[in-house]
Amino acid sequence: MNERILIVEDDEAIATGLALNLKLAGRITTIARDGDDAIRQATDEDFALILLDINLPKKNGLEVLSALRATDNLVPVIVLSARDGEYDKVAALRLGADDYVTKPFALAELLARIDAVLRRTQSTTTTPVPAPASEQLEFGDVSIGVAQRSVTRAGNDVKLTHLEFELLVFFVTHPSQVFSRTQLFNLVWGQSAGSVRTVDNFVGQLRKRFEANPEQPRHFVTVRGSGYRFDP
Question: Is 40 left (phi over 0), alpha (psi -120 to 50) or beta?
């Protein structure tokens, strides 16, 4: 199993400290000191996870994340930032980050988040959505191959991150049921630490990809005061 983690951090003390603690936790790490180097390494090699600082030389973390996702590189990414602004969190999640951790962070919490992301992406046994008898799901002009983890809309491929796919399958396999943000977070994200508000950003991404009018969603519906419901 690929357990290699790319640490993208220009602060040498933080980078070496993270590398040492991850090594003690049984992980193999590589360090990139700037945005260009991060993109090069993530393109040339396979990593299980990227720890990505926002404030980087040459290209910042959001630019790195955008560049990776633009080439359909769906490697899990945890964004690290000294900035606690809502804008950066929303931007990172919309670009496809799997989690967002604000500096200074507790090492134990970061290690727990890393473990949670790796469990979600590398072990099918932790997936909360059971594979349906029919491995092909459909709604509207959207077709989902569960086993192949493939999605098409009107015959065109749609690239989703791991969590976007998991949330989509969960919704489609639980039609017409209302789930609160907390329920969705627990069922799809599992035991990961973080904010349930993350769910809002991922629902927004699904709307952008699959709704004719994301501002007036037909399928991924907000139930005021309760949460979200999927209508086929």
Answer: alpha
Tens-place pLDDT, residues 45-91: 889 899 999 999 999 999 999 999 888 788 889 999 887 667 788 88
Measured between its terminal Cα atoms, the distance across the chain in Å is 37
Helix (H, G, I), strand (E, B) or coil at 227: strand
- C-alpha to C-alpha distance for 222 and 11, rounded to whole angstroms: 42
Q: pLDDT (tens digit, 9 = 90+) per residue, 29-42?
A: 999 999 999 999 99
Write the DSSP symbol of residue 31.
Answer: E
Q: Is 22 helix (H, G, I), strand (E, B) or coil?
A: helix
Q: Between the CA of residue 199 and those of 46, 80, 138, 151, what are the distances in Å?
A: 28, 19, 22, 20
Q: What are the b/e assignments for 179-198, b being 16+ CB within 10 Å?
A: bebeebbeebbeebebeeeb
Using alpha carbons only, what angle is made at residue 146 by residues 191 and 5, rounded to the nearest 5 degrees? 50
User: Does residue 131 contact residue 146 with C-beta atoms inside 8 Å?
Assistant: yes
Please give the sequence-ordered ranges of beta strands (E in DSSP) within the chain, or none if there are none. Answer: 4-8, 28-32, 49-53, 77-81, 99-102, 136-139, 142-145, 150-153, 156-157, 178-179, 220-223, 227-230
